[in-house]
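## retry 2 of 3
previous attempt timed out at serialization; input unchanged, resubmitting
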Amino acid sequence: MFRVFVAAGSNVEPERHLAVAASALAAAFPGTCFSPAYRNRAVGFEGADFVNWVATFETGHSVREVRARLQAVETLCGRPRDAPRWAPRTMDLDILLYGDLVCDEPGLKLPRPDLPRRAYMLGPLADLAPDLRHPTLGATIGELWARFDQAGHPLIRLPTPVPPVAGTVGG
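## retry succeeded, writing output
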């Protein structure tokens, strides 16, 4: 079994799309837990604020099978496969960590290279697994988050959990 961490984000009807994605993830991966949800500015382009959370689950599926299931959830939320990279999104699901797997192939880089530089990934991940050691950096997720410029990249924690499903932590 592998412990997987997945970042989710949307800035197009985010509450609706994140609820759909959470339900689909919980159905596909029983026992899925979710961080609190956060609102933050769009990164890389001008656009509406995003709402983000991180989910975690255990699976025996291969990383490619997990990625295919995540892409199916994105499609369920209305995201076309050819969506531009830096643009509004109905749903964006990214594998941050897949156990201790280190992979650098076209279309699959793990751990997620920009994880230590993105508040909307690192902050919610620190809510779920502060003591987890990053597979290549050696520091714990909590240590990485403590060193992060949080004031320069503010996250606004939402008062009610998104997604509203069982397994949400800190909500």
